[in-house]
Amino acid sequence: MATGRRGRPRSTAVDWAVEQATLDLLASAGYHGLTIEAVAARAGVGRPTVYRRWPTKDDLVVDVLSRAVPVMADPDTGDALRDLEVLAAGVLERLVAAGVGPVVLAVLGAAIDRPELASRLAERYLSPRLGVLSEVITRGVRAGQIRDDLDVEVVRDLVLGPLVYRVLLTGRVWNREERTAAMAAVRLAIAAPGAAAPAPPVTGPPRRRRPASSPS
């Protein structure tokens, strides 16, 4: 039986070069200063190579940001307040590790007067990431761990705002003590009565404990 003709497989090396060139140019020239021509030149590829993968500038920018800061998995530890702290710390660490804080800020700023870019960012970048937080918050409300008189978006902003604000606007990174203090304040603000006891400092996803060895 005849099979359909397959296209040429995409090159991972080319994708990486284009993505890095895009991040570099967004950081140095901003969204408005970025062009497909400049990206292609910096990546050492032809313009058709870029256009075959990303038909428009907005496609390129949103896809590159999405790859640079992947969606985090729901920790689901049984403590929604703890889960929110893990997620917030993870977002912060990924923004810093990828060095894309200023880039995200530049693109979000450009989206203010570009409805099409704003729509794509909301659909492909913001919604998947904020959706994980929303699921945790909803679960926490149902479990009696998070106040039920607060809107989900309000809780989300309270959790992310203190940590992300400094990175995006100043480039400064919270140290562990500052992060712990900020999240303790957020916990007190959003926790349901009786559920506000502070959790241990969050340094990343919780690790599984090894079973205790039995006495010989």
TrEMBL record:
Location of region: Disordered: 195-216
Domain HTH tetR-type: residue ranges: 12-72
Domain of life of the organism encoding this protein: Bacteria
Ranges annotated as DNA-binding: 35-54
Alphabetically ordered keywords of this record: DNA-binding, Transcription, Transcription regulation
PROSITE patterns linked to this entry: HTH_TETR_1, HTH_TETR_2
GO MF assignments: DNA-binding transcription factor activity; transcription cis-regulatory region binding
Residue stretches of biased makeup (Basic residues): 206-216
Protein name: Transcriptional regulator, TetR family
